Amino acid sequence: PPQVSFTLELEFSCSILLDRAEVTLQATSDSTEAIPQDNVVKLSVPIRYEPNLFLSSNTNLHRYEVHPLGTFIHGSGPEFTTTVKVQNLGCYPIQNVTLHMALPALGHHQATILSVTHVLAENATCVLQPPDEGTQVVPAPPEDLQHMDR
């Protein structure tokens, strides 16, 4: 039997959110058919909307001091603030968004290079967790910058 393939491209309105798209296809012919009932098919497919998330971050400290090995000054360094923003640029609501951030906290010989003092959250729930017992924490290796011109 002859076959026909085609693609349907549907556009959806931001003001009306649908759970399903229902399409009825009907083939007609000038010929006489023995079983005309099989010329109609009704399709119903679930609709999933693609999110349009934008992730941005900025910090108030753009300069970091690097000390030679063995000359670390014990005590806290300068405090800085990092802001992470998640925006929904699409017109469809987004649910159950989870953002995981891994902060570099250990340096050479397990030296602490970062400690979080406080977390402020707007329109979100933030949980500060140490690494799980089974998680391997890989300290950042010391950088050899002697071969660099600048």
Task: Give an overview in words.
It is elongated, with a radius of gyration of 29 Å. The model has no long low-confidence stretch (mean pLDDT 80). The termini are far apart. With 150 residues, it is mostly beta strands. It contains no helices and 4 strands. This is ITA10 protein. Residues 131-150 are annotated as: Disordered.
The largest pleated sheet is described as:
2 strands, antiparallel
Contiguous low-pLDDT stretches (5 residues minimum) are none
Strand order of the largest sheet: 1-2
Strand content: 15-25%
Number of helices: 0
User: Structural class, from secondary structure content?
Assistant: mainly beta
User: How much helical structure, as a percent, in the residues?
Assistant: under 10%
Mean pLDDT: 80
Determine Rg (CA atoms, Å): 29 Å
The helix/strand series, from N terminus to C terminus, equals EEEE
Shape: elongated
Separation, N- and C-terminal Cα atoms: 73 Å
- Using DSSP, what is the number of strands? 4
GO biological process, one term: integrin-mediated signaling pathway
Region (Disordered): 131-150
GO molecular function: integrin binding
Protein name: ITA10 protein
